[in-house]
Amino acid sequence: MDTTAQPDDLLLETAPLTRRRWFRLTMVFVFLLIFGAIRVPMEVELNKEHRAAFFHGAKLDMSLRQQIGQMSFLAALGGFRAVVADGLFIMAHVDWQNTQWGKMLFLYNNVTALQPRNVMFWDTAAWQMAYNASAYYLNDPREPHMALRLKRQHEYFLIGEDFLKRGIANNPDHFKLYESLGMVYRDKLFDHYNASLQFKSAAQFPDSPTYEVRFAAYELSYSPGHEHEAYDELVRLYKMGEKEWLPTLLKRIKDLQEQLNIPANQRINIPENELPPHH
Amino acid sequence: MTPTSTLYADAPARHVFFSPARIWAIATNTLLDLIRQKVFYFLLIFAVLAIGISPFINQFNFQDQFQFLKDMCLGAMSIFTWLLSVLATAMLLPKDIEDRTLYTILAKPVPRFEYLLGKFLGIMLLLFISLLLMSVIFVITLYGREQFALADTMRYYANAPADVLQAQLKSIHDASFTISLIPGILIIFVKGSIFASLTLLISTFASSMIFTIMVSVACNFIGHLQAIARDVWLSPGTAGPLARSFLALVALVFPDLQLFNLVDDIVAGNTISLILFTKTAALGALYTCIYLLLAYFIFAAKEL
């Protein structure tokens, strides 16, 4: 009896195995589809929970892809958003040394789009625009007209404000950006009432510095129509004890007492030597 | 004589259908085999990256420096974990077939699922040790930089009021290593386990190692886009019927890997609740189990 397998016999033997293999692969594919149908609602739900906890807030859309390039976009999609954002942030830092404000604005928009939960990026972008770029354009040697220089300066104040507002929308749970926005209103836009509101918002956070409450009261004291409200708040702080008796607080109380004509018997007596030297 | 061949020297005559000891023996042998291939040399690259980044970021303030260091190190951890999980898993079966080790093991009373599970556990051990070592390097680097920052700040604010100094020191502590980073590192491990199981599934029917790696890399990219495909598919009126069918296929077949990209936001200061972390890790474990099950389903009928 010839036990040597002929080529045809081998083909007959392997054919069912191949068919079985393909059958198994098809079964796997069908199973993956069924598993997909079960897990997609779970994924949608988990995704919602992640977003509610401020995860996956980055806007990875086509406009960002055009701006940062295909490789960076792919890296960002592949889970390396933070690294790409850092790279762009360092590029913006180099551009700052070369005073390329337009390019910086472009890069900061991308950095914050990639990492919207990074408070530092929003804060730095706003500071660069509202403080540094605005100062540069106020003294722009290429622009002889003061009115146009002031206009450009104001535009950069507003760009800084916009960064902070968008930053707060993405990070409503952090005090820092409220504080920075308060400072932009106070120091650049001279909108004391809005500055007061921002410092007050910052003060709501348990980890915020203690000066936020004082800053809110100081700014309210400069807001026309809110002097009484501010005076009550300043007196409340004064009554909290000596640690609150800081020169600016005492000065604002003294000024408001004069401004509001507070009766002498209701006034807080503030000695001159407790006030700031320039008073 | 290999450790696997000595496994049954003192074993009882009765064959046990499922033996954790056998799986552990295969797992440790897989790990040892990978260690012999000097895979841990990548840690040198990681250490150079973690320490060597310093001169480039010194011009930034301490908060920025910590941010960059954390981003770079955790990014590198993600990349190395992904590379290890894909490359090490892709070579498992082809190498065992080439070395004839697979035949030696399966000729013994070792069920195929035990072999597959043992191999997978070996990869998991490798990923765990790698991540642990990378975390140690990362924490030491971060700690060293934190100490430097603290000393510098104390010198700079030596004459400042105590509360100002304390606030500065607190901001440095907060910017350095925090407990919230640990779930981020664990999620990298979970993601690594998904990649490993998916690559193992592919390698059970792949014709070559290159094919396994290419398909696995493609699955990685598609998996990161799956959420976009799913959202368009589930939003009526955003695409035509043909496009929606294709997107549905993508959403159903591929895993949503964006759900495991939490480390970027965690480094930025986000914290993840225990419940949310558990849910995410459980989904990762479910993916891993399903892919392993399917890998066994194909491997069980594989002609060897």
Q: Which spans of chain A of ≥5 residues are poorly predicted at pLDDT below 50?
A: 1-14
Oligomeric organization of the protein chains: heterodimer
Order of helix and strand elements from N to C terminus of chain A: HHHHHHHHHHH
SSE order of chain B: HHHHHHHHHHHHH
Shape annotation of chain A: elongated
Strand percentage of chain B, roughly? Answer: under 5%
Number of helices of chain B: 13
Structural class of chain A: mainly alpha
Fraction in helix of chain A? over 70%
In angstroms, what separates the terminal alpha carbons of chain A? 120 Å
- How far from one another are the termini of chain B? 23 Å
Q: What is the radius of gyration of chain B? A: 23 Å
- The rough form of chain B would be described as globular
Output the radius of gyration of chain A: 31 Å
Major sheet size, sense and barrel closure of chain B: none
The helix content of chain B is over 70%
Mean pLDDT of chain A: 86
User: Which residues of chain B sit in consecutive blocks of at least 5 with pLDDT less than 50?
Assistant: none
The tally of strands of chain A reads 0
Structural class of chain B: mainly alpha
